[in-house]
């Protein structure tokens, strides 16, 4: 019933009823096509982000949102839907197309006491504002020796979408992850999105929050705990999505989904091959600080590592993970570390080329097989 | 030479175009624009440069500044102002501030050549009138954002000389514990928000601080919050995109900010005239709906008058002002700059208009203070600066552990729980759910 009401209200353009904080009950399913199931609730990433923004804005009047099209357009990807009606144009600001200017204004507002959320329509546009993200946000707490901290969140979709071409498809996790002073987060599921965005908004440091456009519409089951308005996830902790004992796969954002699919494929194949290949899939969640402790503990258990990312391979997140594992757990490795990344080219437009430029599930499966069979005699395989 | 009319150009009043589409009463409604109120300064005090003046188009061999004012106006005569502009206390305060700035910068040069200071050091000699003229009118809660030439802005705002000197020496007692350096002076206590090495970087930050001030008054309902922000930057910055982006947004949202251009005609070795298609910077304000003012930046009294109006305007909520101060730096761009491109006659011309000598002359001629009193101030400042050097010299270098400190305000990621331990160390956190 709730789902139907929501659908009507959403279509009519009235303010969308958001979670009442007094009710600790479950939030209704959002997708219009889901049957109302009494078991696990599902929520799309888009709604998870929207609810996180809404709850944090209502909890703290110093939080405000600014970016292109966040207000009257309801968000370029509808993430900030309903917020303008609820909070007014002083707290949900439509900016002119001036990334450098408004990112800097956000930083200045954070210096002087507010908690801005700056939305980039995609992180590709953050390159116009990168001076402010790095030089005036990331470095300020250090340069001022702790006097001025910058509680700002830069968020937006990151990485490749579908057919958007080279200038709209770059993944910025590695670039921002290299900078001390920034916290860089990359959620995957709705629970990640909610928990990490709330943590980011409450965090006193600059946070770069890398979402993914293709994940916005995906639904994930969400627990009652995650729907609570005080739910937060820790920054700097990875999550083990799937237990396994043969190989560790690290991934973040959309690639976690691919890694999980690959794990399913391998599990089925493994059964038929007599050798049950189980993979431990780690959802990094946090690119900086990177949870090297969890990764290393996992590698010490499984002895093999495959890193997956969507971005360019050189100097990427995978390169950092591989090296950190070699530094800390070298003697535990039974096979060379495998690194899967996007192709080392600007993203092409043609659909088949684009598919080749981004890691696919088959690539992950191949890499895992390579990592696993190195130390296994060929006769043992099916 | 210049036109007899001395009005500033007002931006054309913008009509209220479309009606407010949003159902809520918008406080920052970009669609509705109100006519800019007329700039309340007395028009006699402000100068207008004649557009298309042949002087303005001369190339870098030009001796004189963009403005024609230079030629005709005598630097210290105040015949226009029959009443004195300042009281004795104000005069002494201004004098002391400018002497402090000058002595401090001279001492910096000495210390640099002795190896106590290092890296990039940009000195403010000659421009003290702008800093003293503007910053001495501010309250403690008002903010100042500057560039790399920020020592004197910090000093005028109230940061103790010894803290700034220690910072320059790289000692742990500096205002940023030695981690910022010459170009990154921050002080939360005195609301000095930096100190930025990139030109144009401070302008959006200042606009953001002004935004906060307005937000606090209107959204957080702190009714008495009328803090003003001053953004200081140079002539070279006025060609940078961020400057224009912020003029637009400050005017759009009517933020309480004053954009102060310290036009010292040179950006390292690039003359302002060689770099700028229209060198009259104050004219760029009206293009965005902001009043633009040009003032003689070597005369602290004139600067102060303009500053009073601009700051009051911002405090009243009437929006931003762009003030172009024509000034000059007596030394090179930095202490590493050999300063070979500037004409000796140009330097001599401005040296004759030294703001400190001008103020001294004014005060003595108008019987505001005697030479002896001013000498006492100079001696006092000498002692302050000497003491600052001694303090900095004897301060310790930062300890090794300081290298990794203060990268984050909250280094463990997310917060401290009620039991005093970091939340991310709670074993339940790896399971993906956590209660706060």
Please explain how this structure is put together.
Chain A folds into 2 domains: 42-227, Rossmann fold; 239-373, Rossmann fold (3-Layer(aba) Sandwich), CATH 3.40.50. Helix content of chain A is 37%, strand content 15%. Chain A contains 14 helices and 14 strands. Chain A has helices spanning 2-12, 45-59, 83-87, 99-111, 130-138, 140-143, 173-177, 190-202, 224-227, 254-272, 292-302, 317-329, 351-357, 361-373; strands at 41-44, 63-67, 92-94, 115-119, 153-157, 183-185, 207-211, 219-222, 239-242, 247-251, 279-283, 286-288, 305-308, 338-340. Chain A has a 7-stranded mixed sheet, sandwiched between helices. In chain A, helix 8 (190-202) links the parallel strand 6 and strand 7. Chain A is globular. The termini of chain A are far apart. Mean pLDDT of chain A is 86; it is low at 1-38, 271-275 and 375-382. Chain B is α/β, with parallel strands linked by helices and 436 residues long. Chain B has helices at 69-72, 88-113, 128-135, 151-157, 161-169, 202-218, 241-253, 272-275, 300-315, 344-351, 355-365, 371-394, and strands at 143-145, 186-187, 192-193, 229-234, 257-263, 266-267, 270-271, 292-296, 321-326. Chain B has a 5-stranded parallel sheet, with helices on both faces. Chain B is globular. Chain B has 2 domains: 88-394, 3-Layer(aba) Sandwich (Rossmann fold), CATH 3.40.50; 399-435, no CATH class. The chains are: A alpha/beta (382), B alpha/beta (436). Chains A and B meet through helix 4, helix 5, helix 6 and helix 8 of A and strand 2, helix 6 and helix 7 of B.
